[in-house]
Design goal:
Layout: H1 3-32, H2 41-47, H3 64-79, H4 95-104, H5 106-116, H6 120-134, H7 137-147, H8 151-154, H9 168-178, H10 186-197, H11 200-209, H12 211-230, H13 239-251, H14 268-273, H15 281-296
Helix pairs in contact: 1-7, 3-15, 4-6, 5-12, 6-12, 6-13, 6-15, 9-12, 11-12, 12-13, 13-15
Amino acid sequence: MSSASIGRIANLMRARRWITTFNRSVILLLLCSFPPAGIDPRVTAVLALLPASNCAQLQPVDPRGTLTDIQHAHDLNALIADARRRAIDHAYFTDEQVLTRIDADLPLIGCLARAARLPPELLASVLALELDLDYHLTDAVGDQLILSPLGEGFANIDVGAGYAQVHIKRLKTAIIALNPNLPPSPFLRAYADLITDASAVDLTLFATRYRALDVANAALMLRYYTALRMGSQTQRLSLDDMAIIWSAYRGGVIGTPVDPDSNHRWALVNYQHVNDPMLMGDTLIAMPYLRYFSLRFNSINP
């Protein structure tokens, strides 16, 4: 192929990327012009129980090394020959955008992690990984439509809600499984009652419109998958444990109440005993995020 042909192909690819970016920007600009709906009084009552601050002492961390490590992890993921082990990466946000967005929510994440008795670095990392790997243009458009006055109609579609991408039907099942052993947080107990009583449409609206409830959904699902892996053990989770728990959050565990189908990632016995974060792309990419947020929250992990 001549250099001129290669140049034409490169120019065509750049033009297509520009058109895609332009179309994305126009769609989101139009959708963002819708006025927001008013706050639901049920949400007001639940949010009033959430501590507003002083849940974690955050440490400043230079993100440049982490960004390099994340890119290396993505490169390794691309080299995994078995597509079943390779992480699906929608690449809607850049790595820098992911860290910026999650860093801004760390005080809230710290409070919700404390309420759910989870390591805050696990909750922060899972939210970051969802943005990094699992968020795409359809999600962005859907979220903006749900934020609009037309939101109730669009919330009928069973898609992952908000940044945490939690499916409400699975959340309702997880609450049933968790309720006997739910941590005694007034906020968490009140929100669990709301999840039980409210419709799936309302809960999709809430998770998309209120960041605290979006993060709470992630915390509750992580509480479920943590208990599924660790049982009644109370030892501190290692970073390897957290990476495996994240992979279940994304891929499911076969034959369990939240994931009854046979097309999920883990068999229960494997999920409970595997400890190799190099096993698959999702866990590979999780490690630099987990290390970064451990430093941000000044956590020490084995």
